[in-house]
Backbone:
């Protein structure tokens, strides 16, 4: 291990005693909980699966860092809050991160540096990226013990502001920024990540939507021929070509629909009844909400489809929203309030991916390198989701956001004790999540014996 010599950090004295600190102990880590990431990764096989998708053209006799080790290092560091490749330089000798990656903190060499990570980002080819995209879908499929009866594919682009001359960067008038608008696709019931695809900062076209959907559906149907698939998205995804493809392939859908004068005319009676009910109600000012459905065909549509209307009348006025769906028998209120509005959970998934794991750190020039970075952050998402789902159920962190899990579970001070036959990490006796850590360890032990 490296030795460190740094100036003391002085603090105010306590009871006449000098108080100071120094950075001089290479056997201490701030991220002892990273060891749990290693266990979860080993259990689900994520890093190994992703590494097999990347062609390594380096001369193997000169390689110090395997692709799988670099993927682990980067995904674990992102999970622990170190989202930049520059952080690799400071953490390459961290004992907990090294042990999590699978290296002996004392006897083995340092982890990959920032230049090593940058070379990897820029070495990945389009073919590698395509295989990585499929690997994430395969990982999603492998996360189920048996085929589910139904899956819900929630798709939504989210803004990723750029600063510089990145390829694919485009000015978005709504965001008032140059940005990317990467697709995020999650399974809406479980929150599991299915895909993440970098794209320009504009409204998605039917071709872009279908290029992602076709690959996912083909892979899912090959593994689960009988599974029912539901597609759910906002109005930007309501394209005639998309709806026709979904219908042709037996996929149910419910997507937002932009209001227009024709829809207002079709639902005029329902809107007027809701407004009348609001005026006549005894409890003045209490909002009135009503639902209705009719069949409607826009000029660009090949057939009439069911449209559900949600009407809300309040002191602020009348607010009308529409969705179009392939579901013909379910009630209008259930379809809108439960099925469609259920996609609101996706905002929390994107928040975990984009805010907690900082997946908007796409500052490379080449679009391929930025797509690979998005995949690295997606790998961290899969690990953190598996950690929460597999090890934290029944605990106070069972529904916690990723940044809360990081703060409570991963950011634990640890001191390494190394012997000839063991590596022992000492956690603080005052650790507030000691019970959760003990319970998670017991769950891991049970999973490893099955």
Residues:
């Amino acid at each position: 291990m490296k030795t460190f010599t740094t100036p003391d950090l002085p603090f105010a004295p306590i009871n006449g005693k000098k108080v100071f600190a120094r950075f001089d102990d290479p056997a201490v880590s701030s991220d002892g909980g990273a060891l749990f990431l290693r266990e979860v990764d080993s259990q689900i096989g994520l890093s190994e699966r992703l590494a097999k998708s990347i062609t390594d053209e380096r001369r193997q006799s000169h390689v110090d860092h395997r692709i799988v080790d670099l993927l682990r290092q980067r995904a674990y560091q992102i999970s622990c809050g170190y989202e930049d490749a520059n952080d690799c330089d400071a953490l390459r000798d961290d004992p907990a991160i090294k042990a999590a990656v699978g290296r002996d903190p004392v006897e083995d060499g340092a982890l990959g540096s920032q230049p090593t990570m940058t070379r990897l980002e820029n070495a990945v080819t389009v073919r590698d990226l395509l295989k990585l995209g499929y690997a994430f879908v395969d990982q999603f499929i492998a996360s189920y013990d048996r085929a589910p009866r139904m899956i819900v594919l929630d798709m939504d682009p989210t803004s990723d502001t750029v600063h510089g001359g990145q390829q694919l960067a485009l000015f978005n008038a709504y965001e008032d920024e140059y940005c990317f608008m990467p697709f995020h696709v999650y399974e809406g019931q479980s929150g599991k990540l299915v895909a993440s695809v970098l794209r320009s900062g504009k409204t998605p076209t039917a071709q872009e939507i279908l290029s992602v959907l076709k690959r996912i559906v083909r892979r899912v149907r090959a593994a689960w021929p009988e599974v029912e698939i539901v597609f759910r998205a906002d109005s930007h995804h309501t394209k005639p070509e998309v709806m026709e493809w979904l219908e042709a392939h037996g996929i149910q859908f419910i997507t937002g629909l932009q209001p227009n004068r024709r829809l207002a005319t079709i639902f005029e009676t329902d809107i007027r009844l809701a407004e009348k009910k609001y005026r006549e109600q005894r409890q003045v000012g209490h909002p009135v909400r009503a639902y209705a459905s009719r069949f409607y065909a826009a000029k660009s549509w090949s057939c009439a489809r069911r449209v559900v209307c949600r009407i809300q009348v309040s002191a602020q006025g009348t607010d009308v929203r529409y969705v179009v769906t392939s579901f013909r028998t379910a009630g209008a209120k259930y379809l809108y309030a439960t099925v469609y509005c259920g996609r609101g959970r996706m905002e929390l998934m994107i928040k975990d991916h984009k805010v907690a794991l900082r997946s908007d750190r796409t500052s490379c020039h080449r679009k391929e390198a930025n797509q690979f970075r998005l995949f690295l952050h997606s790998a961290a998402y899969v690990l953190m989701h598996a950690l929460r789902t597999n090890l934290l159920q029944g605990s106070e962190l069972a529904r916690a956001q990723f940044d809360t899990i990081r703060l409570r579970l991963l950011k634990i001070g640890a001191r390494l004790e190394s012997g000839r036959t063991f590596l022992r990490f000492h956690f603080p006796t005052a650790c507030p999540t000691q019970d959760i850590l003990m319970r998670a360890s017991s769950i891991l032990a049970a999973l490893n014996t099955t």
